Amino acid sequence: xxxxxSPTSPYVRKVTVTAHETGLHDRxxxxxxxxxxxxxxxAKDNPLGKVPTLITDAGESLIDSPVxxxxxxxxxxxxxxxxxxxxRWTALRREALADGILDAAVSRMQESRRPANEQxxxxxxxxxxxxxxxLDAFExxxxxxxxxxxxxxIGQITIAVALGYLDFRFAGDDWRKGRPRLAAWYERxxxxxxxxxxxxxxxx
Length: 204
Ligand SMILES: N[C@@H](CCC(=O)N[C@@H](CS)C(=O)NCC(=O)O)C(=O)O
Fold this sequence. Notes:
This protein has 204 residues and is of the alpha+beta class. It has 8 helices and 4 strands, in the order E-H-E-H-E-E-H-H-H-H-H-H. A hairpin with a 5-residue loop joins strand 3 and strand 4 (61-63). Bound molecules: glutathione. Glutathione binds at residues 9, 11, 35, 49-52, 64-65, 99, 106.
């Protein structure tokens, strides 16, 4: 398998954490990809021009981190990251909400990189509000997120990656303030080897 990636993408981190947790990391060849460079050939594998994009051993291109993570989950025999039964919907609900934090945070980041006179303060404020509401929802259920050192699911991984991205890009916002249970859960989850091995570094 080949994974087209960029080093700071949180969606790529989510896939990479999943690869570590499922024991598949060594089976994935990593292909650095600059999404804005037409010479990268990304568009041929993913017409949307986004990373992560996974090319399977059969040559099929899989796009979108939920799809790629579910594919990786289908390849191993261990405890499933996308569980069956009622737990499936809890995990997928949490994944979708945490992906929403990522979407809003990436959008805010991109907006803040536009020339100052083209930026929309209202747009940035809207993304902050969305992120705050989603974090508050996770604080409410923080005690039910599961043992951070135990069996893992895709909801937990995506929440942790989203919180890590907020630390990486918006450390000054202090998302922990007023959310002590979520902060405590994240502090423990961050110690998992898969999280430690994938801490984002600022290349840009
Ligand atoms: N929903 C997608 C989002 C992927 C995404 O937006 N990736 C960003 C990098 S953080 C990207 O490739 N952006 C390039 C572009 O939109 O042109 C996923 O979960 O994989």
